[in-house]
Amino acid sequence: MLVMKRRAGESFVIGDEIEIEVLEVAGSRVKLGIVAPDSVAIVRKEARVTREENITAALPVPPDTLAALARRLLTKHSY
Amino acid sequence: MPQIRTAYFGELDYTEGTIFHFPYGLPGFENEHAFVFLQQPHTQPLLFLQSLGDPRLCFILLPILVIEPNYAANLDPDDLAALHLAPGRQPVIGQDILCAAIVRPGGGESGEPTANLMAPVIVNLKEQIGMQVIQSDSSYSYRHPIPIGKEVNLCS
């Protein structure tokens, strides 16, 4: 991983078409400004992971697995 | 009464009043905007978020407090507005909102069930509007192991 130190107001470029500027640093939060072509998808990492997790979670589950999971939860939580 | 085809429970009756609207869908399923929550006696305490538009699409959920009794969802002003919740205060789970985690029955490394505590499904119970809210600032896991008890035979 390339590590680079930047201050607020400074920027860096990736290739010829992508520029990322550090707009603001406040505590543990950094506000970034990104200039990139429309064809480049920019999403927060969490959004991408959530999407992947959802797609896997939506795969069908055998009915027996569901019932078994529910029974095991019931014993734990003793409703 | 209209019927819904479900992924796990065949055809079920439903009423218009039980439909929950997800204006943004869920990540990966952005075009699915209408869902119903299903519960069945033999799968309690699991909840099922069944798409109205795609009978094959059904998420398995658990109320988040079942997994993590101290869970605190943190909604920012944009989330509150999107869910039509009152600004300026965090909604109360169970009163204002339903907060549930998407379950993967074999999500863990050893095939144990996991729940996505990082990105819970949150629903405004009064307005019946829902969305998945990513808790970026939290230390919750996408694959939180669900503690489970020893399986018992309920018929005994």
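Chain B touches chain A through 41 residues (CB under 8 Å).
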